[in-house]
Amino acid sequence: AAPNAERPGTIRLRPLNLELEGKAAQTKMLFEYPRSSKFLFAASALVVEGTSDAEVLEAVYLAEHGLTFDDVSVACIDATSKDVLVESMGILKQRGLSVHGVVDLDFLWRGAGSLLPDSGAHSRFCDAFWAACQEAGLCKEGEPKKLRDGASRRAAAALALERFGSEITSFRAHLRDNC
């Protein structure tokens, strides 16, 4: 027999796929050194969408209180995206931390629906919001539920606050009290 020939009964294995998906990938990301060193020894965590959000909140807290988050045992963690922020909060809560999340206003029309119990009210809000954005010319051409780049995001937030203030206040209260 040739030296490289397979023997009868040989089982050929594929290479292992070590890519993580979903919550496993999020957990791995949270435990990477820069992030885990923040929350492993903290009493509570503040989870934000991204690095700039974390930097702004930390700077504001320092300016207002003269203390850093480290001084008061708060870990400010960037989740890297609003798409994984809620899952990141859940992982940290499972580890026994008191956890709070901070999101931009656009979370109301890009993610909050899964956290709100009355999906009918949220669906009606989203439909009315997107119709108002289309009417104001803030949507991409041919994509009625996508905002144009640049200033239209700020304009959409202003429009939402102006026309849907009471709904937003209600959604914010529910998210603050229950998530």
- What string, H for helix and E for strand, traces the elements in order? HHEHEHEHEEH
Helix run count: 6
**Helix percentage:** 40-55%
As a percent range, the share of strand residues is 5-15%
**Roughly what is the average pLDDT, rounded to an integer?**
78
- Tell me how many strands there are: 5
Q: Major sheet, described briefly? A: 3 strands, parallel
Shape: globular
Q: What order do the strands of the largest sheet run in, or round the barrel if closed? A: 2-1-3
Instruction: Indicate the radius of gyration in whole angstroms.
Output: 22 Å
Uncertain parts? none
Which structural class do you get from the secondary structure elements?
alpha/beta
Describe the 3D structure:
The protein is of the alpha/beta class and 179 residues long. Helices cover 50% and strands 12% of the residues. It has helices at residues 22-31, 33-39, 51-65, 82-94, 119-135, 152-178; strands spanning 44-48, 74-78, 98-102, 139-140, 143-147. The mean pLDDT is 78.
Question: Topology of this structure?
Answer:
Blueprint: H1 22-31, H2 33-39, E1 44-48, H3 51-65, E2 74-78, H4 82-94, E3 98-102, H5 119-135, E4 139-140, E5 143-147, H6 152-178
Parallel strand pairs: 1-2, 1-3
Antiparallel strand pairs: 4-5
